[in-house]
Amino acid sequence: MREFSYERATSPIDAAARAAEVEGAKFIAGGTNLLDLMKLEIETPVHLIDVNGLGLDEITETEEGGLRIGALVRNTALAADERIRRDYPVLTRALVAGASGQLRNKATTAGNLLQRTRCPYFYDTAQPCNKRAPGTGCAALSEGAFSRQLGVIGTSDACIATHPSDMAVGMRALDAVVETMSPSGVARSIPLEDFHLLPGDTPEQETVLRPGEMITAVTLPAPVGGVHKYHKVRDRASYAFALISVALIRQPDGTGRVALGGVAPKPWRSAEADAELPKGAEAVMAKLLEGARPTEENAFKITLATRTLAAMLAEE
């Protein structure tokens, strides 16, 4: 790990201003992803801004009937919150499916959204990776590469990594909105749908956050009712990233919402696919995964996603 300096921020505006002022600075809260990457020297911040003392660790009710989740609310606390369990159970189920209990105790709401989209070649500094070292190539797309876990849609010729968050998939199904603070104190609200970027030719740019901009909260709209489910398919029973995951909210009339994880560089959902839900799983996935570009190793994910949703619908 390379040397770095450290300070504790005193307010969100102070934190954002310092991040913009010091080139190479990064925020740190739980540190569950950042510290791993620093040890591997994939991330090499010269300055860390500790935001743990900013009081952004509460869940409050909004005037619109929803909930505002502070950026520093730990994943365990969020999953266990009575209002989340009662009105947004798809989010609780997604959170509990992610990582381990120890990691959920440290991981924060904002940090979870900001996990690096990654694949095994991103972690292997001996391999080319356009995300880690722009312009070097994508080892995951080379002949004989291991791509079973990687993306099938929303990818590019520069990167086929997937976003690892389960929480984000649940939030995508709920139409969550990310709140931020700029270095000048200007607040911004960004629909989660627009928060993560597709890789295109610049896979190193993963979100729409501007220099110094800091996440302060995530807002959930008023509860939408219906039956909430989250199903994660993975290679072992716990502590593994999703091969695919499905967040489902279904209303009594058969309409609803479907979001996918493990298939793309961001939580994957479309209104056109949601509209197909009354017709069944094959209709939804035909629309949701339209234009997919799987590799030979991960083409099974399309069938797996369809069968997983079909099984979830059959449970009712």
Question: Could you explain the architecture of this structure?
Answer:
By secondary structure, the protein is α+β, with helices and mostly antiparallel strands. Helix content is 28%, strand content 18%. The protein contains 13 helices and eleven strands. The chain has a five-stranded antiparallel beta sheet with strand order 4-5-8-6-7. Strands 1-3-2 form a three-stranded parallel beta sheet, with helices on one face. A three-stranded antiparallel beta sheet has the order 9-10-11, sandwiched between helices. A hairpin with a 5-residue loop joins strand 6 and strand 7 (187-191). Helix 5 (89-97) packs antiparallel against helix 9 (167-173).
Question: How would you summarize what this structure contains?
Answer:
28% of the residues lie in helices and 18% in strands.
Q: Specify the biggest β-sheet.
A: 5 strands, antiparallel
Q: Roughly what is the average pLDDT, rounded to an integer?
A: 97
Regions with little confidence, pLDDT below 50 for 5+ residues: none
Spatial order of the strands in the main sheet? 4-5-8-6-7
Note the gap between the termini: 51 Å
Number of helices: 13
What fraction of the residues are assigned to beta strands by DSSP? 15-25%
Structural class: alpha+beta
Instruction: Name the helix and strand elements from N-terminus to C-terminus, one letter apiece.
Output: EHEHEEEHHHHHHHEEHEEEEHHH
Radius of gyration: 19 Å
Proportion in helices: 25-40%
Number of strands: 11
